[in-house]
Amino acid sequence: GRDGLIVVTIPARRDTTLYEDDNGALANGAGATFFAGTSEDNLRRRAALHFDVVGNIPAGSIIKDATLRLYNPGTVGTDTAHNLALHLLSRDWEEGPVDAGEPGADGAPSETGESTWLHTVFDTDLWTTPGGDFVSPARATTAVAGVGTYSWNAAELLADTQTWLDDPDNNFGWLLLGDETAANTVKAFRSDEHSTLSQQPVLNVVFSLNGGPGG
Fold first, then answer.
1. For the whole prediction, is pTM greater than 0.85?
2. Burial classification of residue 127, based on how many CB atoms lie within 10 Å of its CB (0-12 exposed, 13-18 middle, 19 or more buried)
3. Around Cβ 117, how many Cβ atoms within 10 Å?
4. Do 80 and 37 touch, CB atoms closer than 8 A?
């Protein structure tokens, strides 16, 4: 790597949408797309993402940079720019088997093992707060408009990645929170199940080996 630095692209290990629903009856864990923002009828969608840092970076490494990249196919919503923020999730969750099809913006009936608006695991384990347990303030924010690849990059994401490397038991991933101040702000993103590899979510990490050059 440059100056002894190593670059790795980590694919999403899990990703899903939490669809606002009083019963936690909607899910899309195995779908090719996930969503963040509000629907036309002003129901919230929030996305959860998890990356296996410790499985892709040697223990003891020093993280130098971390960038999340997501691809918006423009299948739902408008091209109006809205800010989407990453927050640290504080509770573990599951991806699940439900596929709501394309585009999947309204979800499909929840099945065992899904995360929902109410459940970390349907239908036995609950979030403390419906819509996901996450930490404020945001770790990074990016304006998302129409079709294309979008990046989130901040010192906080580097810090999160380092924490997840050093303490993998507390890696619960990020919640992607859209603009929930008005209706129809939703943005779609390709998931880890999408057939086009180049459009799947990735966490690009630059690191140095402990004690090595650039350390």
1. yes
2. buried
3. 25
4. no
